[in-house]
Design brief:
Order of helices and strands: EHEEEE
Radius of gyration: 13 Å
Strand order of the largest sheet: 1-3-4
Distance between the termini: 26 Å
Mean pLDDT: 77
Number of helices: 1
Strand content: 35-45%
Helix content: 10-25%
Low-confidence stretches: none
Largest sheet: 3 strands, antiparallel
Structural class: alpha+beta
Length: about 80
């Protein structure tokens, strides 16, 4: 498994989110990913291949307990 994205606390949240979206698109193909709010910051993306299967973990910081979850959808591209 390879760490594809690791957030930096020094980077502004808006640019961190934009970088995360770009890395996700490059890793999985075009996708629309939205954390439930600006407080839910992407932290890390780990990906790797196990035989013919791609395995990944998307980790988002949830500052409080929440039933809201990240929304994900593949785009037509």
């Amino acid at each position: 498994m390879t760490v594809v994205f690791q957030a930096s606390a020094d980077e502004p949240i808006a640019s961190r989110l934009e970088q995360w979206r770009h890395v996700v698109d490059e890793t999985f193909g075009p996708a629309l990913l939205r954390p439930p709010s600006r407080a839910h910051v992407p932290e890390r993306l780990v990906a790797g291949d196990v035989g013919a299967v791609r395995v990944s973990e998307l980790r988002i910081a949830y500052p409080t307990m929440s039933s809201d979850r990240c929304q994900a959808a593949r785009t037509p591209g």
